[in-house]
Amino acid sequence: MHFTLHIIIVGLLSCLVMDLWQRVLKLTYGINPSDWKIIGRWFIQLILKQKVYNPNIENEKPYKNELLIGWIFHYFVGIIYSIGFFILMKFSNILEANLVDGLIFGLVTLVIPWFFMLPVLGKGFLALNTSRPLFISSLSIWSHVAIGIAIGLFFNLFGY
User: Fold this and answer.
1) Using only C-alpha atoms, what is the Rg of the chain?
2) Which of 75, 115, 127, 133 is the most exposed place for a label (fewest CB within 10 A)?
3) Vertex 96: Cα angle to 94 and 98 (nearest 5)
4) Across residues 75-93, what is the average pLDDT?
5) What is the pLDDT at residue 93?
6) What percent helix, strand, coil does the chain show, rounded to 5?
7) Which class for 159: exposed (0-12), middle (13-18), buried (19 or more C-beta within 10 A)?
């Protein structure tokens, strides 16, 4: 049972590391962090309207509590990533709880923003429908590297 609590804690702390990383980027370079309000709006529309693809999500009418829902969804996804890492670590011996395997895992998880989240928000694969696809894609890299390394190191800290 303790591993379940560890998985949740690792997921939450790893998201926190990613969020702190994005705040460092904001303070040092003026780069805005992820907009969880838009993710909350997308998630609400997914539930209420079964609408996955919404290229005009930023222009849609806001929903009450969409920012809170976006943050909750973000941390939920962090827990899902933690579960995925744990499964690959404990049941298939593909990963170990360390910095390098965390980095690899973080890079693999880039398929989610690059090939799902950005496209369903109308930004295209690898953000190709934006004015700065390389910049936006690289922000995804650094955020996922941060969360992946944190997952690997936090599991290591828990002795896995």
Assistant:
1) 16
2) 115
3) 140
4) 96
5) 87
6) 75, 0, 25
7) exposed
